[in-house]
Amino acid sequence: MDRIRSKELLERARQVIAGGVNSNVRLLSLPQPLFFREGRGCRIRDEDGNEYLDYVLGQGPLIHGHCHPALLAAAQEGMSRGMMFAGQHVGEIELAERICRLVPGAELVRFGSSGSEMVQVAFRLARAHTGRRRIVKFEGHYHGWFDNVLVSVAPSLEEAGPRESPRAVRASRGQDTAALDSMLVLPWNDPEILEKTLRAHAHEIAAVITEPIMANVGCILPEPGYLQHMRALCDELGSVLIVDEVITGFRVAPGGAQEYLGVTPDLCTFGKAMAGGFPIACLAGKKYLMDQLTGGVNHSGTYNANLLVVHASIACLDLLTARDGVAYQHLFDTGQRLCHGVAALIREKGECVQAQGPGPMFHLAFSETPLRDYRSAVGCDTPRYHQMTRRWMEAGVRVLERGLWYVSTTHSAADVDETLNRIADSLREEHAAPG
Ligand SMILES: Cc1ncc(COP(=O)(O)O)c(C=O)c1O
Q1: H/E element holding 227?
Q2: What's the CA-to-centroid distance between 151 and ligand 1, angstroms?
Q3: Is pLDDT at 125 greater than 90 in this prediction?
Q4: Does pTM top 0.90 for this prediction?
């Protein structure tokens, strides 16, 4: 595939945009940061005219694919009444009512523009309520790019320290190192270490924050009973349980992973799939915590709950929950068939691949053993996966280099067949190639 125009555009962009991209995550794209012209449904076309079946889906938000007509119409309808009022509109209530009906842990909500912001509000509420300072987070979990939480997201094993008491490792130069001290980092999926640490530090732990399904590294389900154990410990020791559903929310069930896994948090954060690609995020939680937002805890934002994003989000959730949630059946069926299909094709070639995840998102990795936490993921053959994703890109299948696949309601059975055929051809060519 030619990528000449993308290369030229990247050079031009680098003259005026730092690195040529507007999110550091995009610097890592293989074979290079590409420029795209348009997306429709489950397909995306780059500036050189190459078309790809898209399993990146904007890093998760595009649960109804690119440019779903119902979302575009709703956004336009919202905007036709006004863009923002710096005051309230009925749509906010309608969206909040839907979320409170769907999400087990949602008694009250607040809207913002990004998942990163919502996590910060959750920390503030937890600290205000408990009068404690420290937050427990897990190695390899990502909760946004702000100083106080961009900690131990992808540390090298040398930096990371002992497994039972990992060091808090900053992930960016320039990060305020004082912020690291407020984080207590633990390995995920280990109930003994969790219990021991929470008991030893109970007096200083305001909150435990967790991805309910670890999806920023791998796509790892919690061991049976692990999140329930976390819930019980937080209850007993007076810490706030924050479940970060920015990836899982509205993707694995209408009520998020908390519904799917049967654990109700005190606070939870949403973004990505909640509006199918429009920039809105949500903090939801128990009334006694959320009520602090009218009792001295600040949360603000110029763009919060503007008409465009709120109306798009309502349309997105309505599509997901229509006809008894048939959309979820589709997401699970499609994702599972694709996941098992790709894994089978790789195994046929004699390679050992782990395929994990519920279906609406899943993860592939070259590893002898299933991934169960961050350190088990570090041992995967990442260069081999990168090599494969580059080949799949050449075959017109766009996936994230880190192994996570997202599917949308617009990926049909025929699209899955086409993807599997393209991957089968790509693998055949690779194995037929001399050397
Ligand atoms: C679990 C999780 N939390 C928070 C965030 C931050 O969300 P945003 O990129 O909208 O700030 C992300 C982003 O990928 C995420 O995966």
Answers
A1: helix 226-237
A2: 14
A3: yes
A4: yes
